[in-house]
Amino acid sequence: MTPSEKKPSTTRLAAAVPGALAAMLLIGAVAFGASSLRSVARDSAGQAAASVPHSQPEFGATVAALRRNEFKQDPNPDKPAKTEAPKATEAPKEAAQVAEQPKVQPTVEPKPAPVETKKPAPVPTVKPAPAPVNLGALVLEAWAKETKAKLAWTPFSGEGFEYFKVVRSADANVTWPASGDDEVIGVIGDPNAPWHADKPACGFSWNYRVFAVRHGDGGYVTLAASNVASVTTACAPTPAPIAVKPLAFQLNVSPGAGITLSWEACWSDGFIAYKVVRSAVNADPRYPLNDGTELIGVIGDPNATVFTDTAVAAGQTWTYRVVAVTDQGAGYVPLCETAAMSATAQ
Q1: Is 216:207 a contact under the CB 8 Å cutoff?
Q2: DSSP string spanning 44-59?
Q3: Which residues, in sequence order, are bridge partners of residue 254?
Q4: Partners of 196 in the beta sheet?
Q5: Is 150 helix (H, G, I), strand (E, B) or coil?
Q6: For the chain, what percentages of helix, strand and coil (3-state, to nearest 5) are there?
Q7: How high is the pLDDT of residue 328?
Q8: Taking a C-beta distance cutoff of 8 angstroms, is the pair 235, 147 a contact?
Q9: What pLDDT, on the 0 to 100 scale, is given for residue 287?
Q10: Cα(261)–Cα(110) distance, rounded to whole angstroms?
Q11: What is the SS3 assignment for 136?
């Protein structure tokens, strides 16, 4: 950088001082600045600065320039002016660049679109309609025989049969399932056994009906129903009082083996069975059973007159009686009987 390019900082002051005094100060400053600039140029640039010729402006020209304000004031006179570095020369691009070859994508054959297989719509399960009740499939007859009602009906030949339901009612509206005073008195699973016997209360008119049924999802299903048949049974005559025949009786105690009973045989007509009873609290056990009495043996042979009670414990006292019974139509009644006897087990 030459002295002419670098303005001394005192020029600012000279520009501010009017008149001759300013001119004189400016002249001295210019001279001093030029000398200083030459020294700085030599130190910073070395031999290169020495080879550059310096030209010092003449005094008159400098004064005139100051008056005309031709010297531009550098805002930073102490700072060397920036020297723009030469722009780097870009390397010439190759005239012909190899064109980048596009990547060849492999040929992918399109996959066929999946064929959606439609599932068949579920077929709703249709429950079979219940079979209609065939009212004419069963023909029922009913009649009285002594104190019993006898029933017979035609067999059921349809499909799905499981049971006959025999229903009795006091009124003519006999239904199944039973309702009101309807009562199921018989359940028959054999289609080839279409008959039944009933023993209702005597002296009343009873109504009967038979139903052929099978099991269904919600219970029994009626397949057929018979007509309603009525019957009235007669009451048996009141039997004459029976004179109960006494029988000889004895007890034998065997230690650890129980209590053995033996009695006289009952040879009366109408004999059905011996009923052996005992009681631990009642001194007069009887049959039909009275309070505190239990039945411990039934013997249907009139010649079998011995019975051993082994369900006893040593020290227990039991009272026994043997009763031979008959049936007069209203239940068992004594025909022969022993006296009540007691024994203590050992």
Answers
A1: no
A2: HHTHHHHHS---PPPH
A3: 258
A4: 151
A5: strand
A6: 15, 35, 55
A7: 78
A8: yes
A9: 94
A10: 106
A11: strand
Concatenated DSSP letters for 261-320? EEE-----TT--EEEEEEESS-SS--TTT-TTEEEEEEE--TT--EEEE----TT-EEEE
Rounded to an integer, what distance in angstroms lies between the CA atom of residue 41 and that of residue 144? 161
Task: Cis check for the bond before 130: say yes or no (omega within 30 of 0).
Answer: no
CA distances from 300 to 68, 205, 325, 335 (A): 169, 36, 10, 14
CA atoms of 201 and 193, how far apart (whole Å): 25
Secondary structure (3-state) at 41: helix
φ, ψ of residue 242 to 5 degrees: the values are: -95, 130
Question: Which residues lie across from 230 on neighbouring strands?
Answer: 207
Average pLDDT over residues 21-35: 59
Tokens standing for residue 106: 């492999």
Q: Which two tokens stand for residue 272?
A: 């059905």
- Please give the domain boundaries of the chain with CATH numbers for all domains: 11-68 (no CATH), 134-232 (2.60.40.10), 245-344 (2.60.40.10)
What does the DSSP 8-state code read for residue 204? S
Q: Which helix (H) or strand (E) holds 259?
A: strand 258-263
Q: How far apart are CA 114 and CA 109, in angstroms?
A: 15
Cα separation, 142 vs 227, in Å, equals 11
Q: Compute the average pLDDT of residues 254-273.
A: 93
Please tell me the distance from the alpha carbon of residue 324 to that of residue 335, in angstroms, as a whole number. 5
Residue 59 has pLDDT above 60, yes or no: no
Backbone angles phi, psi at 41, to 5 degrees: -65, -40
The Cα 32–Cα 26 span in angstroms is 10
Alpha-carbon distances, residue 236 vs 32, 148, 150, 185 (angstroms): 173, 10, 16, 22
CA–CA gap between residue 138 and residue 155 (Å, rounded)? 7
pTM beyond cutoff 0.85: no
Bridge partners of residue 274, in order along the sequence: 299, 324
Query: Which class for 9: exposed (0-12), middle (13-18), buried (19 or more C-beta within 10 A)?
Result: middle
